[in-house]
Each structure stands twice: as structure tokens, then as C-alpha cells.
Amino acid sequence: MEKKLNKIAKDTNFFLKNFLKKQNSSELIPAIKYGLFPGGKKIRSKILIDIGSLLFIDYKTLIAIGAAVECIHAYSLIHDDLPCMDDDKIRRGKPSTHIKFGESTAVLAGNSLQTMACEILAGPNLKINEKKKVNLIKKLSECSGHLGIAGGQYLDLSYEKKKISKKKIIEMEKKKTGKLFSFCCAVPAIIKNKDKKEIKFFEEIGSSIGLLFQIADDLIDYKGDSKIVGKKTGKDQKKGKATLISLLGHDNAVKYCDKIILDINRKIVKYGENSKYIQETLNYILHRDK
Ligand code: IPE
Ligand code: IPE
Ligand code: MG
Ligand code: MG
Ligand code: MG
Asked: Are 51 and 62 in contact (CB under 8 A)?
């Protein structure tokens, strides 16, 4: 798995570096690059490629779209670490972007990354027809804004130090993290002109994967080693974050993850032999140590 992720990271970073090289220079480029490189497991791109393999989508197309997703993801991390959000000083094993460049620059670099994702999808590097591009841009924008990451982050912050129900925690995690995974899973179906029902099927798979990913991230925060993880651990409890671990306890949260994995595997197996890739990624997501 590490080998596969490294290859995807290499190809994605190569794409992004070339993309940035072709743009005019600006004062924000150093902070943008700092937020993007190095580091980042590229799990979202891996999911895109795994689901893409079910519908036989070309690898280069998936890397370009994955690059756009990684821009949105990097923006969300830069903003997540700001003092007005989680106030974290370490990210990907180095000082957070706002520690290195200052808060206003970090905010603006994050904004730039968000719009850069749309530039990538709209640009000539992505070779799919224009109608599909518009569809992808619309979907990615929805997943990033108030109905997705931003809306979920709002809930995450407003739930701090409060007793929140299981249903509400799941809803919040599906927004702040699940929506971007939903986008990744919907992409291949959109490219292959599948009907609304099949697109929705994949979006729901993505939402479950995102939930699994966030619970696993919460488990890492609970018991992980910050030197391996590259960010501080034990911070959720300190901040009084509403998580399934704080509500149900560690063991029940793990059991819940096992259930999510079983459920996704059961649904995806009808796509044949290639469903083994997504299955291996799900196991990695739950059992990773960073
Ligand atoms: C961390 O995401 C933030 C969450 C959504 C839980 P990742 O664990 O994918 O972060 P990187 O990209 O590997 O640093
Ligand atoms: C972040 O969740 C989710 C995002 C959408 C960025 P966390 O706040 O748990 O992520 P980490 O632990 O700081 O990476
Ligand atoms: Mg957060
Ligand atoms: Mg955080
Ligand atoms: Mg976390």
C-alpha cells in the first residue's frame, strides 16, 4: 500500500508542480507550495483511482482530478490549523502554514488553493468534454462549501465541549470529511455518463469512506504517536471535540468502523475483480498509524 501511495503522490505532485510552473508568479506561491508539498498521504487520490478502476477510467485523467482534490484538501488543512479554528502549530511534520507565513498569508494561500482546484478542472490538462467538466466543477464546489467541508467545519467547532448525539456527530463528520470523498467516488460515474441513481450510489459509498476516514483520524488522535503522525495527538480531548470515541469509547468506535467496511465491501463487490483495490484501501484507512 505504501508503495502505491508513494507512486500516486509522486504523479500528483509532478502534475501540481507543472501546473504551478505555468502560472505567473505571485507573492503567495511560497505559502501555497508549503501547504501542498511535501507530505500528504494522497488517500483521496487513491480512492479516486480505486473507484476509477471499477469503471475503467484512464489513470492520467484521475491524477489530474486528484490534483484538484488535493488542492481543496490542502486548503482545508491550512484553514483547519488557524488559531480561530483548531489552533494547531504542527502539520505534516513541520510548522503549520500560518506559523511559517503568518495568519493572513495562510488564509489567502488557502483561498487560492480552493480556486486553483477549479482552474485545474477547467483547464486543458484535463482532457474530458466541457459538459462533464462543468459537472465536476459544480460537484467539487458543492462538496467544499457550506454543504460540505466549510459547513462541516462550522459544526465541528460549534459542537466543542457539548454533548452531541451520535446522529449529529456522524452528520458533521460526513460533511467536513465525507463530502470530498463523495466527490472522488462520484467522478468515475460522472465521466462514464452513468445515471443519477448510480452516481448517488457512489456518492453514498464515498460518504461512508469519509466517515470511516475521519473516525480513523480520531482514533489516531486518541492513541497515535505524534512523531509518526506529523501532527499533535491528544488534541481532540483537550479541545472537547465531539467524536464517536468521546461518545462511545475506543472499542465501540473501532467496531463501528468494522461495520462500515463490511457494508461498503458488500455493496461494491458487484463491480467484480477490481473491487479488491478499494477493499485493501479501506483496511489501510482503518489500520494506518498516520
Ligand atoms: C487529515 O487528512 C484531515 C482529515 C480530514 C481527517 P489526511 O490524513 O488525509 O492528511 P494528509 O494529507 O495525509 O496530511
Ligand atoms: C479536519 O479534521 C477535517 C477537515 C475537513 C480539514 P481534524 O481537525 O480532525 O483534522 P486534523 O486532525 O487536524 O488533521
Ligand atoms: Mg478540525
Ligand atoms: Mg484539526
Ligand atoms: Mg483529527
From this structure: no
